[in-house]
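Email to the structure team, subject: Acyl-CoA dehydrogenase FadE17 model.

Hi all, the expression group asked for a predicted structure before they design truncation constructs. Nothing fancy, just the tokens so they can compare against earlier work. One-line instruction: predict Acyl-CoA dehydrogenase FadE17, return tokens.
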Amino acid sequence: MKLTFSAADEQFREEVATWLKANLVGEFEQLKFRGGPGDEHMFPEERKKWEQKLAEGGWTCVGWPKENGGRGCSIEQQVIFNEEYARSGAPGHVGHIGEGLAGPTIIAFGTDEQKKKYLPGIVAGKELWCQGYSEPGAGSDLANVKTKARFDEAKGKWIINGQKVWTSLAHESDYVFVIARTDPDSVAHRGLGFFLMKMDQPGIEVRGIEQLTGTSEFNEVFFDDAECDAGDIVGKPGDGWKVAMGLLGFERGVSTLGQQMQFQNELNQVIEIAKENGAAKDPTIRQRIAKAHAGLKIMRYNSMRTLSGDAGDGSLQKEALMYKLYWATWHRDLGELAMDVMGPECEMLDAGPYELSRLQSMYLFVRSDTIYGGTNQIQRNIIAERGLGMPKEPKVVIKAD
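Reply from the structure team: attached below.
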């Protein structure tokens, strides 16, 4: 694990910071520190333009291989880019699902035809993706998916039927990757397929889900005989679980350092408010701020240790199993700290529609952090079983009388 960077890497850091400072101006000035968790509904069109601005400067997909349209940056340079991006206040990536998940998965598991078809649009910042994993009965238990895929020989296409839920930014997306059951008689992780599908087609309906924040960045997505080209299944029928797990490895990858810088921005705002309103004089508040600071440093060092074993195919060291549980719990606690620092008046708003501050919105949103992507309880089971080799949790079978 490296905790310092070379002179060449620090020169790269200066290049990134200089470009961001020069370009986060004019029409993009208003986007600073916007578009993060709980704020993804803000400035969607302007953030799409920013994504294309990044592409023009060669700052999308920096870690992708050059032959796939990326910049070919080292792990150290990817860490630096993500840190400087968040430090500058650059807005949340509307293309992060494509750049961080769909693209690396297609590079690792896809065909040459799939790479030619889908990667250029992601690199150009012009084609956005969403993730079709969770279902009403398959959230943390992804292997319980019920969405079905059958191959229609006459059409030469896969026909998809089912429902996905908690699909972030589906209403803004051009494409979706979908886990569906190719073998109707299969159970658990067997008999699954991983499909790449166009969103704008008959048979796909998107319905927004209103959250505590009053926004609808999550959606339900319904598939009613929606079509997927024969060449747009990644791997073979039955390979879906392997591909899906590879994708989740990329989710625990280098972008986590950028996420931590967003957390640092939030913590900085909490500290600033505490100094302004006198909350920083409270020894209990000071102790909680210190604990949050230390927790964020621990998060960074564990991520660096995890990334030191990155094989580039989505597989990470066992330390990666801790990350989701750790950051979700830390971020939830930060939301509670923010509210306590702002004081009891922050819990009261005038009549709706309510205008939430960034920290109020963050506080409400972080309640979902411990649920999506695998609940804290599921994460503990994964750590125990896969990381520590402990026996699996016993299942209770109830027999009918």
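The chain has eleven helices and seven strands. The chain has three domains: 7-94, 129-238, 252-387. Ping us if the truncation boundaries need rechecking.
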